[in-house]
Structures are given as structure tokens and as C-alpha cells.
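Rotation project, supervised by the postdoc (A.L.). Task for the rotation student: set up a whole-complex structure prediction and record inputs and outputs verbatim in this book. Inputs entered:
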Amino acid sequence: MIPASFAYHTPQSVNEALALLGEHGDDAKILAGGHSLLPALKLRLSSVGHLIDIGRIADLAYIKEDQGKLCLGARTSHYQVESSALVQQKCPLLAECASHIGDVQVRNRGTLGGSLAHADPAADYPAAILALEAEIHAVGTGGTRAITAEDFFVDMLTTALQPGEILTEVRLAPVAAKTGSVYLKVPQPASGFAVVGVAALVTLDASGKCAKVRVGVTGATATAFRAKDTEAALIGKTPDEKTLDQAAAQSTNGIDANGDIFASAEYRTHLVRVYTKRALLKAVERAKT
Ligand SMILES: Cc1cc2nc3c(=O)[nH]c(=O)nc-3n(C[C@H](O)[C@H](O)[C@H](O)COP(=O)(O)OP(=O)(O)OC[C@H]3O[C@@H](n4cnc5c(N)ncnc54)[C@H](O)[C@@H]3O)c2cc1C
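Outputs recorded:
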């Protein structure tokens, strides 16, 4: 199928893109890599009169350090995230997570900002973005604001971005010493998206006990979530296998799991617990090296 006709705009700056969004309102959408938006337009699941392609805005594609934070522009591709020495050094969890997305063609075209703004419940990044407690920056006519990862993912395909806002940057605090992290995923065999994906980050104190634990889970529910009961159960504990097993059992407390023809809600719930334990074991192992 071909999409309904639309006007195609190529702004050269964020301000120009904002002006176009303001001018065309609900009849306009930002186009990043087009990996989610174009299929939706072709299938006529979505239609807009104006596509605002941010692909030529150089200011939106970068990976840099600023005031001790790792900053990634919204237009940064998954491949750039995966292969960046700076990301691998400061926030290896994000690079590892990016390496799990689709295939190399998808990773070259898909963007960090596009994936987050789309908020697919089976996308990989949200698990890592939650575990890393990222700050997501958006700009609108009223100025720039920072949104915490926890506030950003609101519901299936719904984020805290307001109409007329553009996601510009993701900011991350570098991980502390004696921290191990990992992203593990059960991929849907046809699409590669996450049936369940778990990002775990563990910081150990000098005596080997858990000082900080973060667990982000994607794929299982309408929107990615932090397994906070699991995190709390581990603080101050020695992360032996039994302790991790008991903590992982709490990762599904209060969730309302999705079910589909590939994986029932019960199976997804089971996978979250199993993969949370595996991810915690791996993160602890990495924290010790
Ligand atoms: C074959 C295939 C396999 C894939 N496999 C995986 C996978 O395994 N795991 C995974 O996580 N993802 C996967 N994806 C998704 C892909 O990696 C993209 O991240 C995702 O589709 C978003 O694409 P995009 O960056 O091209 O954004 P687009 O499709 O251009 O945009 C997506 C949505 O976000 C909005 N948007 C984009 N950028 C901004 C911005 N800066 N500010 C505000 N709104 C914005 C757009 O208006 C649109 O609504 C796959 C995609 C394909 C085609």
C-alpha cells in the first residue's frame, strides 16, 4: 500500500521544525528514521497532511559529555549508540541494549529519539532508559524541559511529550564504580522486538553487598516499568543466588501482562521473573570484575 498524500518538509534547524509543528498542529508529525511512522502511514493506520523530516538537522545527532553527563541527540542512530566508545565506557548498558535492536540495517536507520517517542511496548530502549534513570529533554514553543524516564512512558504508544514538542536529547549519569549491568531479551522470532526484555544494573559496596539496584522491564506490559520491589529487596543484601531468586520473584508484583498469539500473559509473567533473575546474576558477575 502507499500512504495518503502529504506535504514533506525538511527543516534545517530545531526552531524551523518547531515553527512547522506550530503552523500545522495535529495535521503534522515529526519524521526521524521513518521505521515506525512510514509503515503506519503505508498501512493507513495513521495519516497526516505534513511530515516534518528532522533528518537534516545536524544539531540533533551527537554523542558527547556535558557537565559530567553523557548526552545523546535524539537523531542518534542505534548503530551509533551501540558502537560509540564513549557510551560503552560511561553507560555500557545503553550500548548493549542498542545492539539488540533489529538487524544492522534497522540499527543504521532507527533513532534513539524516534524509538522513545514512539513508545512501542516491545521496544528495547525503554528497559535500559528506566534502569539508567535517564533524563529526556524536549523542546516546545514554551522552551526546553527535562522529563524523567519514569514520567516519560505513560501508556502504550503514549509518552509525556506534548503536542508541538520535539524530543531533543537523552541525558545519562555515568555509572558508578563497581557497577555491573546487562540487557537480556527474549526476541519475537519474526520481528525481533522484545517479547520480554530486562535491563539490570547493580552497584556493589566495599563488602560486596548491593548498594544500588535498578531493573527495567520492557515487552511484558503496555508500557515499560521498573521492578521496584525487586530493587528494594536487594539493598544491603549479599547477592547470592537464593537472594536474587527471591527478589526476582517480586519483579511481576502488580503488573498487568500483555498476552498475544505468540506469548500468553502467564508466559510473559514467567519470563519476566526468569529473565530478571538471569539479568541480576549477570550484572552482579560483571560488577565483581
Ligand atoms: C524491521 C524492523 C525491526 C525492528 N526491530 C526492533 C527491535 O528489535 N527492537 C526495537 O526496540 N525496535 C525495533 N524496531 C524499531 C526501530 O528500531 C525504530 O527505533 C523505531 O521504529 C523508531 O523509528 P525511527 O527512529 O525511524 O522513528 P520514526 O518512525 O520516524 O518515528 C516514530 C514516531 O516517533 C515520532 N518522533 C520521532 N522522532 C521524534 C522526536 N525527535 N521528537 C518527537 N517525536 C518524534 C514520530 O513522529 C513518530 O510518531 C524495528 C523496526 C523495523 C522496521
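Student's summary: The longest helix spans residues 265-287.
Supervisor addendum: The pocket of flavin-adenine dinucleotide is lined by residues 29-37, 54, 74, 78, 101-102, 106, 110-111, 113-115, 117-118, 123-125, 161, 166-167, 191-193 (CB under 6 Å).
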